[in-house]
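One example given next:
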Amino acid sequence: MIFKRMPWIGTRTLYGGGSEPCRTPTLVMLSVTTIAILGVGALVLFGPEQLPVIMRKAGRVMRDVQNTSQSFIREMERAADEVEAPSISEARQPPPQSDH
């Protein structure tokens, strides 16, 4: 696989009471209070009728973006697999001798 995800990319290192750092995804850095405030703000801004519709549309967009990204990665990996590397036996053969 060409495109490997690094587990520490997109994370923050937190130093708690322990001796080792804890790596946690940055999206988890939103506290419950912050999420509640954002939810109430969205409810006030869009209203109870429009909020589910907007969230469904946002979910569809996120799914489409994720599917497109995965499709691109699969296509790039398939193209990379089509390129054949020379075999070890071909690489070790000495060049042909010329009679000069």
About this structure: The chain has two helices and two strands. The mean pLDDT is 77.
